[in-house]
Amino acid sequence: MTRKFFGTDGIRGLTNSEPMTAETALRVGQAAGAHFLRGDHRHRVVIGKDTRLSGYMMESAMVAGFTSVGMDVVLLGPMPTPAVAMLTRSMRADIGVMISASHNPFADNGIKLFGPDGYKLSDKTEQAIEAKIEKGVKLVAAEKIGRARRIDDARGRYIHHVKSTFPERLRLDGLKIVVDCANGAAYHVAPEALWELGADVIPIGVKPDGLNINADCGSTKPQLLQETVVASGAHIGIALDGDADRLILVDEKGRIIDGDQMMALVGLDLQRRGELRGGSVVATVMSNLGLERRLQQEGIGLVRTAVGDRYVLEAMREKKCNVGGEQSGHIILSDHSTTGDGLVAALQVLAALVDSGKPSSEVLHLFDPVPQLLKNVRFDGGKAPLETDSVQKRIAAAEAELQGRGRLVIRKSGTEPLIRVMAEGDDPKLVERLVDDICEAVQSAA
Question: Is 17 labeled as catalytic in the residue annotation?
Answer without folding.
Answer: no
